[in-house]
Every structure is written in structure tokens, then in C-alpha cells.
Design goal:
The protein is α+β, with helices and mostly antiparallel strands. Helices cover about 45% and strands about 15% of the residues. The chain has a 5-stranded antiparallel beta sheet.
């Protein structure tokens, strides 16, 4: 059985939408959009099924093409990309998967903790304050590093409240998010290998998710926080 693909027509349509981002053009090409959208949703659905062979995915959320322009200076009405996120199941499985397809070599995938709530963020920082060895060993493991590169995420300019600015792990403690990303060119997106590439990188993130799930479901004494 052949692997799901993103066709060149998807990239071409999104490029045309980018250059004609208005309601009149979109209305004229609504039928074409629906066909393209169905193709992309099938790709994401297949990706969710693949994720479920090695993880437990609760839901796939496909983001709408329509932009909320109420509070934005950019009044263009449509996104010129497709994007979807995959939520893991249950309180014990933490972290999430994300994939965006945007022309102009602006496609990317991401995994991790982009906007953790304040309780989760404090718990992560407390763990890294106590001991960051396992965390660093996990994200610096050779095959993991090859798949995902460096840890990313917005950072505070100084130490978070209650933490020592001279702490040896201050670089990790300053982070407000703990995420990994990988970018794709347009050629990579329409390649027959794209599905397998995305799939293999999603699988490679699991040691990080396993560790973070352990951290976020236990206290500093290793006692479970789950009922």
C-alpha cells in the first residue's frame, strides 16, 4: 500500500491563496479548496493512525483556514497554510504533536510543551533545579539529536521568581516553553518520503515525552499525583 502524500497541487493552491488573499477569490475557488482540504485531512488522519501504532492519541484537531482578524493589524481573511495538532490520551500522557504545511519552505513540525500552564511550568522548573542530568541526557542522545536538534522555546531574560540566577541550570530554568521543531522545504513536503520522515521524527520524540510525563505526574519525591 502506498504511503499518503501531499501533492504539488496543495502547495500551488496555498501559494495562489497567499497571492489572492481576499474573499472574492476564495469564493470563486471554494470547490477547489474543498478538494485540497479533503486531501490534506486524509494525510493528517493517516498520520494519526500511524501515531496510534506507538502512542495513544485522543484527537486530531485541524485548524481552520479562516483567520480571526478582530485584534490583528493583518486583515487578510485566510491562513495560507494547513495545520493540525495531535493530543495524547489521558492525564498520564503529556506533550503534543503539531504539523504545519505552508509554501515558501515554511512548513514545520513541532513537539513538546509550547504554552504549559503555570503549575506544569513550575513543576518542570523545580525538577530541573533539583537535577537536570536525565533531562539533558535524553535531549542530547545521538539519535534524538539527529531527529530534533536543539531544544527551543521562549525564555525569560533573568531567573524566574524564586529561582537562583546563578543556578548551574539557569539556561533551562529561564525557559517558558520546552519544544523541538523541524522545518521542511516545499520539495521535502511533496516528496514521497515526507510521511515516513514526519512519522520517524514523531516516534523519536517519545523518550522526551516519557520523561516529561513522569515529571508532570509525580512530585519531587517521585510520588504519583494521579488518582
Amino acid at each position: 500500500m502506498s504511503k499518503p502524500i501531499i501533492t504539488e497541487e496543495v502547495i500551488q493552491f496555498l501559494n495562489r491563496l497567499k497571492n489572492n488573499n481576499n474573499r472574492e477569490w476564495f469564493a470563486e475557488h471554494k470547490k477547489e479548496f474543498k478538494s485540497i482540504e479533503a486531501e490534506v485531512k486524509e494525510f493528517y488522519t493517516n498520520l494519526m493512525e500511524d501515531l496510534n501504532t506507538h502512542d495513544e492519541i485522543e484527537k486530531l484537531k485541524m485548524f481552520r483556514i479562516y483567520r480571526d482578524v478582530r485584534f490583528s493589524k493583518d486583515k487578510t481573511p485566510y491562513q495560507h497554510h494547513f495545520a493540525g495538532s495531535f493530543s495524547r490520551s489521558g492525564a498520564r500522557l503529556r506533550g503534543g504533536y503539531y504539523l504545519r504545511i505552508r509554501p515558501g519552505d515554511e512548513s514545520f513540525m513541532a513537539c513538546g510543551f509550547w504554552q504549559p500552564d503555570k503549575e506544569d511550568l513550575l513543576r518542570i522548573r523545580k525538577e530541573l533545579e533539583l537535577n537536570a542530568t536525565e533531562f539533558e541526557n535524553t535531549i542530547n542522545e545521538k539519535s534524538f539529536k539527529k531527529a530534533w536538534g536543539e531544544l527551543k522555546g521562549e525564555e525569560l531574560k533573568t531567573a524566574p521568581k524564586g529561582f537562583d540566577k546563578e543556578h548551574p541550570n539557569i539556561g533551562l530554568l529561564r525557559k517558558k516553553a520546552y519544544v523541538f521543531t523541524h522545518e521542511f522545504s516545499d520539495d521535502a513536503v511533496i516528496s514521497p518520503k515526507f510521511f515516513d520522515d514526519v512519522s520517524s521524527r514523531f516516534k523519536a520524540i517519545r523518550p522526551f515525552f516519557n520523561l516529561m510525563s513522569d515529571i508532570l505526574t509525580t512530585n519531587l519525591n517521585g510520588e504519583s499525583l494521579l488518582d
